[in-house]
DUF1571 domain-containing protein (Adhaeretor mobilis), 318 residues
Amino acid sequence: MNCLYPVARHTRLAMLLAAPVILACSTLSVQSVIAQQSTGLTEPIYRVAHEEPAGETPATQIASRTVSAPLPAGINLTQRPGEHPLNPSLRFAQQSLIDLDKNIKDYSAILYKQERIGGELLDQEVAFIKVRHQPFGVYMFFLSKQNKGREVVYSDMPDGSIGKLNARDCGFKKRLGVFSLDPNGRLAMGGQKYPITKLGVRELTKELITVASNDVKYGECDVRTAQTAIGPRNNKRPVTLIEVTHPVPRPNTFRFHKAQVYIDNELRVPIRYVAKLWPTEEGGEAPLEEAYTYVNLKINNGFTDIDFSKDNPEYFKP
């Protein structure tokens, strides 16, 4: 890939909201299984600058078997008489954003990202990330084989305006040094759907609210929920799955045919989002449009300005 960083965007989603959720009306099949292929990647050591993997681990299974079960405490998706099936998820997302701003200042995670650009489904990207909400900042160290060692760091300006993205590529391109780029510019956006300023669970939650607010205007919508778990085999997180399906395409209105949002039951924020387009032929498979997953989420690490500065002595090492 020719991109300088992967951005987890959540705008195509059209799902729902905070913690990986999307909505609920009926229930998913007990036999429904969503799994990810082996990556050979492991959880890094989080307070070490480059967060190198600490050894080999088995494949990371993104989701285990989904089951119909009562919603956990704190996740209320009750549909009121006569209202749109998306409204419960929309309310939950709005409250989740309030709670997120109150309770989560920063976090680290492993981000899995895959996007379709120009009709082509690109390879999955994997990166260790640090994110701070105020002022907004992102650090990324890529772990996937094709670009392992690529680094990106970004921070908003003190007044909240858009800052510069600083990046260094991997391999022989390291000799080119660190580049300072406009995060919305052509070079920074090469091979990316969304700018780095849209990365993270907070931006995902905001986008879910925006999309759901639009979709409640239309009736063609099926919603269902289920319980499952996400994460490495030895560190799975219980989540609520909200799946939203638009059976009838509405060009320039609906952004997806089927979307799935997975909400962490404890943190009540979205940690996985998947969007699929309409099949090209009747009975065909719905093609993946984009997928973003945050695993090994560690919140409130006390990150400071140096964690999101190109002058951090632990970043961009030879």
Remarks:
- The chain has two helices and 13 strands.
- The CA atoms of residues 243 and 260 lie 4 Å apart.
- The mean pLDDT is 81.
